[in-house]
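## retry 2 of 3
previous attempt timed out at serialization; input unchanged, resubmitting
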Amino acid sequence: MSSEDFWNLMGRFNIRSGFELFWVGFGLFGQAMFFMRFFIQWIASERQKRSVVPLPFWYFSVAGGVMLLVYACYKDDIVFILGQAGGLLIYMRNLVLIYRCRSQEKIGDDRP
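## retry succeeded, writing output
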């Protein structure tokens, strides 16, 4: 494929420069991170034969959510921005609750 053919193909997706190609790659990587949370949750649930939400689910949620929020800001898409920002609050709150619970369990384990 020649360089001209490549950029003609990219033009079909409104990608007309290396800068735009970078941002699309960034957005796609963010989407892949976000997808991994579902994949991790599915594998964990299959292993335990019940629905579970493992800790990495929340980390992938935050990582993918942050990347997609940055991409949404770059694209100036208010719907996408609000959706990702709202989700990030929930993902981070779940991590706070998980670590708070673990911390309290450790304190409880140390007491006689």
